[in-house]
Amino acid sequence: MSQEQSAATPEYEVAIIGAGIAGLYLLHRLRGLGCRVLVLEAGTDVGGTWYWNRYPGARFDSESWSYGYSFSPELLDEWQWSEHFAAQPETLRYLQHVARKFDLYRDIRFETRVAAAHYDDARGDWLVRTEDGGAVRAAILVTAIGGLTEPYVPNIPGREDFQGESWHTARWPHRPVDFSDKRVAVIGTGATAVQLITEISKNIGHLTVFQRTANYCKPLRNAPITAAEQADIRARYPEIFALCRQSFGAFIHDFDPRSAFDLDDAERRALYERLWAEPGFGFWLGGFRDLLTDRAANETAAAFVREKIRERVKDPAVAALLTPTDHAFGTKRVPLESGYYEAFNRDNVRLIDLRATPIERITATGLRTTDAEFDFDAIIFATGFDAATGAHRRIDIRGEGGQSLAEKWAAAPRTYLGMQSVGFPNMFIVGGGPQNAASFCNVPRCLEQNVEWVSDAIAYMRERGYRSIAATPEAEEAWVRHVADTVAGTLFPETESWFMGANVPGKVRVFQLYGGGLRLFREKCDEVAANGYSGFVFR
Ligand code: NA7
Prior knowledge:
- With 539 residues, this protein is of the alpha/beta class.
- It is built from 18 helices and 20 strands.
- The strands form five sheets. Strands 1, 2, 3, 4, 5, 6, 17 and 18 form an eight-stranded mixed sheet that branches. A five-stranded parallel sheet has the order 7-16-8-9-12, with no helix packed on it. Strands 13-14-15 form a three-stranded antiparallel sheet, with no helix packed on it.
- Strand 5 and strand 6 form a beta hairpin.
- The protein starts with a helix and ends with a strand.
- It binds ligand NA7.
- Ligand NA7 binds next to helix 7.
């Protein structure tokens, strides 16, 4: 960039990438400090995940009333969720309401996708370039780009040949899609596919589901929130958020301190039936303390779920295919469902087992497996995300000496507190990057923690006149070891999942998340702050 261009580049104290849940709250907090902030957002509106994932059936698996922001009593008081697990359009409306209420729109630049962010060694600030040719400078860069935002589409031969309509679920069109007389393929059976398949199977010409791995799905048990429940929720908000603050995943559910084998078979069965009958994640995140560490304990829950699946699917051969046997329960994200298994009882829905008959190629009219040729009007990829690191890899992020973040993380992600990486001074990651509690959490609860911690660090710098904050190699090394410890002795590494980076070919297979839960994560972060931001060097 020439000096002339450089002089014309607008300068901000903080540039935030992403106007999702984290970006919006950070903008609000930093404004409160008096910072000059700009948010750069690729979409046409706020919402992040809830802007992009507009496929039919998209909704919370978190209790709605545990998911909203907790920072504003007024907001809590005025917003009313219609259902215990709200659907995507309502969540998007909520985030738009928040953006309007706190007058956030004026500092967000939409339809502006960041292409590159380079640290300027001489100036000690960041030059952020956008795909439309624009550029801004900022003393501090914050990526609030989410951990499940970079779609993963498998590289199946012939993808360009297909003449029908085709989307990844996170790039669903902004218009109604009518499948009532269409032949549709869905590839994938993860949490997204489970919601999508249930919804579209209600009004479709013919649906073919291509499954590689069966999942353990648990009934969501959604319901409208009655007026009496709403009054109760409002009265209990402090209690609800206190519960989330203490629990492992920041949900209202938390693990049972007992071992699965502290109960006899009948007692354990009775407890499983009770948890199964409850709404939400309780059967998973309210399970026994050894559920995710002891194979035999896990098997008691896994066998229970298998039994429940078999009861609901009429054709025993289809039931067998839908019943997972190759991994431990809960070592992959447990999809919550509202009629998923019944979808396979419909005459116009069929299930193809990709382990027996893999896809060979996509054709102009559909796709071909090793066994058969299929014709489709639409092919939907519900094939997940390049989680935790993918969204950062997509942007050309370069730190001190031109070092690329993507290259640094190619061997394995390395961060301090999941919020900064050595060699990338004045760059914070909030929410959803690797090694951060927010990547495995009732997300807004962790994002609020991230945002508050980062804005407090920025306030600390402003008060003392520091221009630079940089994590030390020792602190990063200790954090990487700590993160590995949080997953050692668990069953997670045994399973091929996006938690382990195993869903994207070529990605290093290492635990991508933080296995210690929000409570421990918060303690660690608070300790660092209380010690004058130990592990960081200020200048
Ligand atoms: P997931 O959970 O990663 O699921 C992706 C699905 O796509 C899963 O069933 C995969 O099978 C399947 N998949 C991926 N690649 C292929 C190929 N090449 N061939 C066939 N099938 C494939 O993503 P979701 O979007 O459902 O959920 C991600 C998170 O987003 C979720 O946890 C929510 O919190 C929101 P596999 O199991 O890998 O065999």
